[in-house]
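--- STAGE predict ---
source: upstream dedup step, 1 unique chain passed
mode: sequence only
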Amino acid sequence: MIEALEYLHGFYNGMVMILLFYQGWLGISVRRARRSKAPFPLKAVKRHRKIGPILALFGGLGFLFGLVLVLLDSGQALEFPPHLFVGLAIVVLLTSTFLISRKIKSPDSPFRTSHFGLGLFVLLLYIIQSFLGLGVLF
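--- STAGE serialize ---
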């Protein structure tokens, strides 16, 4: 049963990662339009704002799901330290990205650059985390 749940954990977080890349694509398309003075992509902005908080929550739930699985299987949270700490970093960065996004109130907000940078770092860590997770499974 635990083994099946481990694969489910990997699949779930893989889907969250794909959705976060879509979210990043939306954000970059909005940023690109804003910086080039192109027509405002209202549809992309609405999707980015709507999906972001949900994906941040899903990322946190994926981390908790994995932590519970390890605790049920071995009873030791530090069974896979690199995977644990990269996952924890992802959760911290997702939370930070979400909180910073709430401070963006104007087109020239200084928080936009921080939001962008943290978002890119989250995506990079998800790629690393995927490889670490595959190493745990196989």
